[in-house]
Design brief:
- By secondary structure, the chain is an alpha/beta fold.
- The protein has 11 helices and 10 strands.
- The strands form 3 sheets. A 5-stranded parallel β-sheet has the order 6-2-1-7-8.
- A hairpin with a 2-residue loop joins β4 and β5.
- The longest helix is centred in the N-terminal third of the chain and has 17 residues.
- The protein is globular and about 60 Å long.
- It binds S-adenosylmethionine (SAM).
- S-adenosylmethionine (SAM) binds next to loops.
Amino acid sequence: MNGMSVETYAYVRDLVHRRSAIVVEAGKEYLVESRLGPVARQAGFASIDDLARKLREGERGPLLTQVIEAMTTNETSFYRDQHPFETLRTKLVPELMKARASSRSIRIWCGAASTGQEPYTIAMTLREHFPELATWSVHIVATDLNSAVLARARAGLFKPIEVNRGLPAPMLVKYFERDGADWRIKAPLRQMVTFQELNLLDPQWSVSGPQDIVFLRNVLIYFDVPTKRQILGRVRRILRPDGYLLLGGAETTVNIDDAYQSVRVGQGLCYQLKPAALPGRSAHVAG
Ligand SMILES: C[S@@+](CC[C@H](N)C(=O)[O-])C[C@H]1O[C@@H](n2cnc3c(N)ncnc32)[C@H](O)[C@@H]1O
């Protein structure tokens, strides 16, 4: 595949930003070439320039979807970073089970679920440590912009290399079954999670409030500050007053949205709304 012109690179950066909010930084030509080369080849174009020419004629259809999806980074693993799931187990769920004792309902949204390891880790944590939740209404909704990774997540089928990364052996034995050379999440766990497409940039989200826990991990890092602010502002409106937000290790609300306060739990951090930011309070919160 031939290289890519300066114009094509500028166009792709702008397109990806407009459609997904992902910022492709200057000097990342190699990244665009490695991600879009296969897309161009598969669609029968001789170069990425030709692919871009076609898209400029009309930004729509499967080609547009393939380009945007190819530019997402879907890196993930079971129990990634561990602390968030420790926090879930030791603080968030016990606390919410007390607070929701009468409604017996917990709603969790995982907003950048990739191939599903994160929402399935949440489901495993609940199953393993809170058997009493079996009689509760527990909704785990997992969303992502990328329909291809969501299809994999829905299938719940993982390669040995994926289950060998972070998943404790007893959990593999208990919650997965062999499927050829791969491992498939057993049906009861798979059925705890509902997957759906959601672009965090879209003006309408298919997920609404009130949510008790929002996982939005390792996705804000790809966005610029105004987009982070906009998304955190929208999360704030669907998060319950006593709900929790979990971000990735390199992400924070600090200096982006002051309506949140961080809560330290062991070695991890999670976020809650400051009392002044709650609906009905007089303090004005921008966003
Ligand atoms: C690095 S993965 C993080 C997966 C998981 N949360 C974790 O921490 O392991 C980032 C995910 O964000 C998704 N993503 C990127 N831009 C998005 C957007 N605008 N809306 C929704 N999802 C997006 C990507 O498709 C990708 O699957």
